[in-house]
Structure formats: C-alpha cells, structure tokens
Amino acid sequence: MYVDDEPVDIWPWALVRDLVTWRSEDDLKRIRRGELHVVDAAGRPVELGGHLEAGARLYLRAAGGKTAEPDQTAERDEPETARRQRVGTKHTEDRVRERVRAMPKTDLHVHLDGSLRPATIVELAESHGVSLPTDDPEALGDYLHVRDAQNLEDYLGRFAITLSVMQHSDAIERIAYELCEDAAAENVRYMEIRYSPILLTSEGLPLPETVEAPLRGMRRAREEFGIESSLIICGIRNMDADVSRDLADLTIAYKNRGVVGFDLAGAEYNYPAKKHKNAFYMVRNANVNATIHAGEAYGPESIHQALHYCGAHRIGHGTRLYEDSDLMQYINDHRIPLEICLTSNVQTRAVDSFATHPVRLYFDRGLVVSLNTDNRLMSGTTVTEEHVRAWKHLDFTLDEIAELVLHGFRSAFLHHAEKQALLEEVEPTIRELAA
Ligand SMILES: [Zn+2]
Predict the structure, then answer these.
(1) Angle, CA 363 vertex, CA 357 and CA 366 arms, to 5°
(2) Is 126 noted as a catalytic residue in this protein?
(3) For each successive 10 residues of the chain (435 residues), what is the average pLDDT?
(4) Which of 27, 152, 170, 353 is the most buried (most CB within 10 A)?
(5) DSSP characters for 97-133?
(6) Rounded to the nearest whole angstrom, what is the distance from the C-alpha of residue 332 to the centroid of ligand 1?
(7) Residues 81 and 99 occupy one common structural domain
C-alpha cells in the first residue's frame, strides 16, 4: 500500500487510520486538527475507519487544497475528525466525560494492590510501622503514578510500596472497601478485583484470610453504595508453578463465595504461561473461569499459549494480538473478550501512544473489547477517563463508547442469568446517555 506514492509495509487488514499512523503519527495529529485530509487516487475523501484494498494508494492533502475542496465533500465521506469539528460543540470533551460518568459501567481488570488511595497508604504505614519514601500523600501519589517506566517490569516495581501496607486483615479490608467506594462514585456497577494472595502473606497472614478480608470490605461497600464486585486470584508468572497450584486450590475453595476467576500476572517476558498450565487445568477442571495477562510485554505467541495451553476464557490486554491475523480471527470467532487497559499500555510502552492503540482496530473488526483501569493509582485513571481517552485519541463516538461499556457487562465472569438481568437493567440507561 502507498501513502503519497511512498510504499508502506503494513499488515493486510489495516484500516486507513493504521496506514496513516504507521507512516507518521504527526500526520494523524494533523488530520485530527483538520490541517490534512486523506484522499484516494481520484481525489475523493477517504474515511479514517475505512478498509484498504491491496495496493491502495492514499494521498494526504492540506485542508482546502485542490484535491479536496470542502464543498465537494459529501457528509457521509467526511473523515470523523472533520465531522466532529463541523458539528461543533455537540460533543465536547466535558460533555462526553459527563455522559460516560453517568453510564453504569464495569471494571473487569483492576488490581487491588494498584488501586489504593495515597492518604490511606500513609495512614496504614503509620499504624503498622512501615516506612515509605515520603509521608506526604500528595507527593506519594505523584511518586506512585508511573510516568517514566521503560517497560512492564519497571512499572511493576512500584507495587512493592503498596504491598508493604497490605499485610494485615484490617488494611486489606479497608483498601477493598475504598476501591469499591471510588468506583461506585463514578457509576461502576460491577467490578472484578484481582490480586495475588501470596503477596499478602509476608507477615504471616494465612491464605484464607487474604481472601476473607477483601470480601468483607466488598460486602460492606455493596450494602452502602450498591456496587457489585467479585475477586479474581492471580498466579504470578515469575514465581514457581507450585505457588500457582496453591493459588488455584484457593480459587476453587472460594468458588461461588466471591471468587470468580483465576489469572496469571507479573513479568511476561521470559516467563511463559505454559509453565503454569497445571494450575489452569485444576481451575478449569473445577468449572472456574480463567483470564490471563498476555500480549502486553510479549507477542501473540503469549496469547496463543494463554488460550491453547491454559484455556483462558478472557485475555488481559491482548495489545499485540494484531500481529497475528489468524489468532485475531480465532479470538473474534470464539467471542473471547479482551480486557483493554489503554493508559497502562502507554505507560508500560506496550504501545507508543493512545492514538496508535490497536483497540480501534479490534473494535472495528468486531472483537469483544472493554476498557478497564488496570491500576487506578499507578495509572492515574478511572473507568470514565479510559473511555474519554478513547473518544479523544481514537475517535470513538458516544455510540461506540456505549458498545464498549456493554461489552464490559457481556464479558463479566457472572453466571449467565445474573449477567442477563444486569444487562437488561443497565442497557436502556447506557443507550439513552449515548443518544
Ligand atoms: Zn493487569
């Protein structure tokens, strides 16, 4: 394929947006600002979300240039960004934020140890005699909000601090309760909170208590704020397979008692999922759900392993899935949901920028994708902000955002009847807010 007669080597199922971005992110920004238009060889405007034929030739023309006179532009052929500018203030950022905030939402991928309030960390450190890099909540929050990670491992380094105040029942209960309270405040209706119980035992807390404690906090939040939540237990890639098997046992013991799934988290590079396949076999054999962090810091081979060695029912991130079109087709055909975490992916450098995140491609191809926070603290984000960023950087319309939000409810590890009842309850409100 070609842009301005320059050959661009890109995957065959790319969209116009991908082709432009692949060559230059700056061009995409200029298109968004309305300074450039994309046209075909005949000078006709081309939509950013349009599909490409093999050998397609596209040209970038300055706005008002002779190949793309605005008065020749039929509304249906207008690029999304130009359309948005023409309709003016109808969908300003504040308006989108207000609508998204009001929508009932899910957060299916949120780490308990990555979603604490800085002030709580300071108070817990004081009461349990833990030393912190600083006792000032604002400075601590700033330090824990990752802005300069080189990779996933670098990002994960911050968790040693949060975990240091999560070694006692009262602390864990409070952290789970406050996470639910914060999520409920932005209308999250259902949340699946994940964490690795083994990381909460360094001061002797018994494994069952590491599950009972957050469940108490979640139960209290349900009564006070009406937010439903469940737990997902994480094995850790860079720990022994024995540890994963112990955690699989724990997951099975709490099946139908608040735990809805088993996950594999931690450093992905050099730590393949297949090493933990026995733990996943135990979990699936007990009819429990599995999700796996994959395709975040490693390529599609990692997603392949998560699916075919470990039997994952959902994939955490899946950022690099687009590199394997065959696997992407399989995931689409089997409606395997991807738990997308935009901000976190930019921070860990899984993608170069919001504008180049493949979630746009996945959504356009019909994959089941939802947006999630990953870590409210380290990523400095909320479910609302993740959707606003998709609107701002990836041209998601409010209608499309409603679809992402509904995908979240559809992908939940709830029993079928519960899920249908919840969907029936929330769908009219979500659609109304998108109108
Ligand atoms: Zn994660």
Answers:
(1) 145
(2) no
(3) 83 76 76 82 83 85 57 44 50 91 98 97 96 93 82 80 96 98 98 97 97 98 98 95 96 98 88 91 98 91 95 97 95 98 92 94 96 96 97 95 98 97 97 95
(4) 152
(5) HHHHHHS-EEEEEEEGGG---HHHHHHHHHHTT---S
(6) 21
(7) no
Query: Which listed residue (296, 385, 400, 403) is catalytic?
Result: 296
Domain that holds residue 145: 95-434
- Residue 273 in tokens: 């999922």
Domain co-membership, 75 together with 175 = no
What is the distance in A from the centroid of ligand 1 to the CA of 16? 30
Strand partners, 370: 339
In this structure, are residues 363 and 15 in contact, taking their beta carbons and an 8 Å threshold? no
Report the candidate in 338, 349, 258 with the shortest Cα–Cα distance to residue 306: 338
Residue 90 covered by a domain: no
Q: Which of 273, 263, 277, 249 is nearest to 413 (CA)?
A: 263
Query: Of 196, 122, 186, 93, whose CA–CA distance to 373 is shortest?
Result: 186
One DSSP character per residue, 35-70 reads SEEEEETTS-B--TT-B--TT-EEEEEETT-TTS-G
Which of 60, 85, 110 marks a domain boundary?
85
The token pair at 433 is: 């807010």
| Tokens matching residue 228 | 């439903």
Q: Which two tokens stand for residue 196?
A: 């690795």
How far away, in angstroms, is 113 Cα from ligand 1 center?
10
Q: Which residues contact 418 (CB under 8 A, 6 or more apart)?
A: none
How close is the Cα of 156 to the center of ligand 1, in Å?
Answer: 10
In a domain, 171, yes or no: yes
